């Protein structure tokens, strides 16, 4: 089953460890501006911390606008072929999420490649704000969180195989899916 890198912004502390591990894996340097993930912080009330990373869209505009076909899907992940890329940066402009980046030291766009299917950012996120979730379960987490926040519930009870189970609100979306 295909798994998708998912962001749960409510759990992000803004530590930016994901940016550090990504830049180290991608470029071998401790430079968050060279990461394929960026944590933005918005200061309305409440403060929102939101990791921005490639969504690996099924119909990706970055792939469509590339004039030389340097962006190609491989096992569900849109990959940048640096041997083909002409550094026009049209993919950066086309991404509706702003998840492809440029850096003055880098000849090519910086884009998440999912670390070959085992993303470092997911492994190192101390709060579990970044997760690999089966694509079929993506909407379920959002629906449960919306219902629980709307009703002010702190937990949900359900029966599985005849056994009563209780999930705390903070636990929804973890790897049990």
Automatic annotation (TrEMBL):
<dbReference type="InterPro" id="IPR017896">
    <property type="entry name" value="4Fe4S_Fe-S-bd"/>
</dbReference>
<keyword id="KW-0249">Electron transport</keyword>
<dbReference type="GO" id="GO:0051539">
    <property type="term" value="F:4 iron, 4 sulfur cluster binding"/>
</dbReference>
<dbReference type="Pfam" id="PF13247">
    <property type="entry name" value="Fer4_11"/>
</dbReference>
<feature type="domain" description="4Fe-4S ferredoxin-type">
    <location>
        <begin position="3"/>
        <end position="32"/>
    </location>
</feature>
<dbReference type="InterPro" id="IPR017900">
    <property type="entry name" value="4Fe4S_Fe_S_CS"/>
</dbReference>
<keyword id="KW-0408">Iron</keyword>
<keyword id="KW-0004">4Fe-4S</keyword>
<feature type="domain" description="4Fe-4S ferredoxin-type">
    <location>
        <begin position="76"/>
        <end position="105"/>
    </location>
</feature>
<keyword id="KW-0479">Metal-binding</keyword>
<dbReference type="GO" id="GO:0016491">
    <property type="term" value="F:oxidoreductase activity"/>
</dbReference>
<keyword id="KW-0813">Transport</keyword>
<dbReference type="GO" id="GO:0046872">
    <property type="term" value="F:metal ion binding"/>
</dbReference>
<feature type="domain" description="4Fe-4S ferredoxin-type">
    <location>
        <begin position="111"/>
        <end position="135"/>
    </location>
</feature>
<feature type="domain" description="4Fe-4S ferredoxin-type">
    <location>
        <begin position="44"/>
        <end position="75"/>
    </location>
</feature>
<dbReference type="InterPro" id="IPR050954">
    <property type="entry name" value="ET_IronSulfur_Cluster-Binding"/>
</dbReference>
<keyword id="KW-0677">Repeat</keyword>
<keyword id="KW-0411">Iron-sulfur</keyword>
<protein>
    <submittedName>
        <fullName>4Fe-4S ferredoxin</fullName>
    </submittedName>
</protein>
